[in-house]
UniProtKB/TrEMBL annotation:
This is Transportin-1. It comes from Amazona aestiva. It comes from the Eukaryota. InterPro entries: ARM-like, ARM-type_fold, HEAT, Importin_beta. Keywords: Cytoplasm, Nucleus, Protein transport, Repeat, Transport. Residues 234-261 are annotated as: Disordered. It is found in: Cytoplasm; Nucleus. GO terms for biological process: protein import into nucleus. Residues 247-261 have a biased composition (Acidic residues). The keyword Protein transport applies. It holds the Pfam family HEAT. One of its GO terms (cellular component) is nuclear lumen.
């Protein structure tokens, strides 16, 4: 009853806003002093909920800053005889740590002192709140914790082993947060001997984990997925140049490699937190961690109990990124052992092994293919057809990672791979089908045009088109299928022609329907729901894939549709991801059928100019690329539009920390130095080719402008592996022209500054 009253009070307070009930807070604070325990505890429960829901307004002038009174009051109750009230008091104050609330900062030393006094509290909820407070203080008031850091580390080591898992989990967060602090290495170096075994021990499945995961169920492939099995999925918009991974896309939203080995336990738990902590600490300490890990690994990986062995395989995966160099000598023995573990009788061992092997895929691919790649690929493909759904999922994800690393190394095995992936269509339940689309799309991205063979097309396309025909326009399963088809269309090129018309038309319809729904919602928001714009984004991206794959063959489809009108609307959408995808499509259509784009250039260019804002990096990147493609097609006719974009482009170039992908797409650069140093690190591709043609044209118009930075031009020219013949001729002409202009003696003195590899390369390729 008391709890219900508390919830009612806080709900009314949050809905009606605290300023409309000014007597509430003074009344609740007054009730804290009641001698009746139930009254005091009830008031504290209500105050805790208010602090959680309304922290911001409590720290504002609107309510005359009540925290100046409330926080000292809460601190008094840290020593209360009731554990429940002590817990409420700490929880209330904790709400104001991250925001560095002034009222708390004034009492920070008293707060920390009181926390230390509660460190050994017998009540788990109090210990949990103390740990939570210390983790947050580590983030915002490290200066106040530093003098006590040795004691805090020792305390957190104990609490990470607390009998209460909620306390242990809260304490384990400390290591994750500490790893982000510059002092981490200095603070922890003396404690690794104790800490690493504690984290490793926390990585074992608990009994409750195994029950929640149905770990005793080995075969479940015939059991349909429930709706809660399927996590919401969000489409990531197309970024131009993402096919050139080495070119340096600096995009943080693609983190498929995270410690996500048991994602059906939706809650963050001690196992996941321990593994994540070990992962980040491996990235801090690198190979220095191995003396503390390797003795444990030896025991774990060959342990007869499957739960212990499984945790060892997780440990091996967790340290992969940070300790890769130091692990290399052990991998020739470990990788075959892990490949054997893919056949373990326990499904949870097979699934974690898939994930761990994916973390070492880069090394596997660097070795002769018959040694590890072929056996790994063979076993992973078997696991893709496993009788356990968790193993199917882990194998599919691991295989997608292997595809990204191996690329064309997989071409000799394409028939075998496709045979397995296509068979999985008939085997998979709902959730894993979505992951299968990703594996097929990644395969297409990785092997490219090698997929364009009649026998492969005949295997792959019928099941994809069957799914395409089954799904309704409003079904969110369209997202991964459209993404998959986008990659497949780009890879198959002309091989996709027989399927392109219905696919193209449906994409145009999806864009049109979404725009129409958005217009209705904007006009009458109470009557019409806002559309899910992801449908429009994935459709635009598939249209881009079609344009890139089909090239000029898309011309008739564009001619018969209103896609350019729709694209004009999308380019002005409020949602950055919609603009990002529409600019990618504009660039691809410019390359494929410029005759249809050209009449719209006067409308498009001002919009492109306003989107050259590096704050929205992916939008800016795609807008820049589209401008470059339009410039190539327009030639001298581009001149009237240059003032709309030139100033912004020069600002992007001169901005510190501009990602390489954006610099690659920035067509007109003011400074040779900046341009050449960015382009030298990009592998040969069409964008690099057009950028260098721009440089050569600039030099021919103004040769004296390059003199000061000519060494950077020479270095950038030498970065080419195989430039086109006419571009090589341009380089020759400029290099020899410069040499003749300055004379042999000056050229010799100038070229003596070059590193030896640069000097040799220019002599061998260009005769200077």
């Amino acid at each position: 009853m008391q709890s219900a009253r508390g919830i009612l009070i806080t709900t009314i307070a949050s809905k009606g806003e605290l300023q409309n009930w000014p007597e509430l807070l003074p009344k609740l604070c007054g009730l804290l002093d009641s001698e009746d325990y139930n009254t005091c505890e009830g008031a504290f429960g209500a105050l805790q909920k208010i602090c959680e829901d309304s922290a911001e307004i409590l720290d504002s002038d609107v309510l005359d800053r009540p925290l100046n009174i409330m926080i000292p009051k809460f601190l008094q109750f840290f020593k209360h005889s009731s554990p429940k009230i002590r817990s409420h008091a700490v929880a209330c104050v904790n709400q104001f740590i991250i925001s560095r609330t002034q009222a708390l900062m004034l009492h920070i030393d008293s707060f920390i002192e009181n926390l230390f006094a509660l460190a050994g509290d017998e009540e788990p909820e109090v210990r949990k709140n103390v740990c939570r407070a210390l983790v947050m203080l580590l983030e915002v008031r490290m200066d106040r914790l530093l003098p006590h850091m040795i004691s805090i580390v020792e305390y957190m080591l104990q609490r990470t082993q607390d009998q209460d898992e909620n306390v242990a989990l809260e304490a384990c967060e400390f290591w994750l947060t500490l790893a982000e602090q510059p002092i981490c290495k200095e603070v922890l170096c003396r404690h690794l001997t104790k800490l690493i075994p504690v984290l490793v021990n926390g990585m074992k499945y608990s009994e409750i984990d195994i029950i929640l995961l149905k770990g005793d169920v080995e075969e479940d492939e015939a059991i349909p997925d429930s709706e809660q099995d399927i996590r919401p999925r969000f489409h990531r918009s197309r970024t131009v140049a993402q096919q050139h991974e080495e070119d340096g896309i600096e995009d943080d939203d693609d983190d498929d490699d995270e410690l996500d080995d048991d994602d059906t336990i939706s809650d963050w738990n001690l196992r996941k937190c321990s593994a994540a902590a070990l992962d980040v600490l491996a990235n801090v300490f690198r190979d220095e961690l191995l003396p503390h890990i390797l003795p444990l690994l030896k025991e774990l990986l060959f342990h007869p109990e499957w739960v212990v062995k499984e945790s060892g395989i997780l440990v091996l995966g967790a340290i992969a990124e940070g300790c890769m160099q130091g692990m290399i000598p052990y991998l020739p023995e470990l990788i075959p052992h892990l490949i054997q573990c893919l056949s373990d009788k326990k499904a949870l061992v097979r699934s974690i092994t898939c994930w761990t092997l994916s973390r070492y895929a880069h090394w596997v691919v660097s070795q002769p293919p018959d040694t590890y790649l072929k056996p790994l690929m063979t076993e992973l493909l078997k696991r893709i057809l496993d009788s356990n759904k968790r193993v199917q999922e882990a194998a599919c994800s691991a295989f997608a990672t292997l595809e990204e690393e191996a690329c064309t190394e997989l071409v000799p095995y394409l028939a075998y791979i496709l045979d397995t992936l296509v068979f999985a269509f008939s085997k998979y339940q709902h959730k894993n089908l979505l992951i299968l689309y990703d594996a097929i799309g990644t395969l297409a991205d990785s092997v490219g045009h090698h997929l364009n063979k009649p026998e492969y097309i005949q295997m792959l396309m019928p099941p994809l088109i069957q799914k395409w025909n089954m799904l309704k326009d409003e079904d969110k399963d369209l997202f991964p299928l459209l993404e998959c088809l986008s990659s497949v269309a780009t890879a198959l090129q002309s091989g996709f022609l027989p399927y392109c018309e219905p696919v193209y038309q449906r994409c145009v319809n999806l864009v049109q329907k979404t725009l129409a729904q958005a217009m209705l919602h904007n006009a009458q928001p109470d009557q019409y729901e806002a559309p899910d714009k992801d449908f429009m984004i994935v459709a635009l991206d598939l249209l881009s894939g079609l344009a890139e794959g089909l090239g000029g063959n898309i011309e008739q489809l564009v001619a018969r549709s209103n896609i350019l009108t729709l694209m004009y609307q999308c380019m002005q959408d409020k949602m950055p991801e919609v603009r990002q995808s529409s600019f990618a499509l504009l660039g691809d259509l410019t390359k494929a059928c410029f005759q249809h784009v050209k009449p719209c250039i006067a409308d498009f260019m001002p919009i492109l100019g306003t989107n050259l804002n590096p704050e929205f990096i992916s939008v800016c990147n795609n807008a820049t690329w589209a401008i470059g493609e339009i410039s190539i097609q327009m030639g001298i006719e581009m001149q009237p539009y240059i003032p709309m974009v030139l100033h912004q482009l020069v600002e992007i170039i001169n901005r510190p920390n501009t990602p390489k992908t954006l610099l690659e797409n920035t067509g007109t650069q003011k400074l040779i130095h900046t341009r050449c140093t960015s382009l030298r690190n990009i592998r040969d591709n069409e964008e690099k080719d057009s950028a260098f043609r721009g440089i050569c044209t600039m030099i021919s118009v103004n040769p004296s402008g390059v003199v000061q930075d000519f060494i950077f031009f020479c270095d950038a020219v030498a970065s080419w592996i195989s430039p086109k013949d006419d571009l090589r001729d341009m380089f020759c002409k400029i290099l020899h022209g410069f040499k003749n202009q300055v004379g042999d003696e000056n050229w010799r003195r100038f070229s003596d500054q070059f590193p030896l590899p640069l000097k040799e390369r220019l002599a061998a390729y260009y005769g200077v």
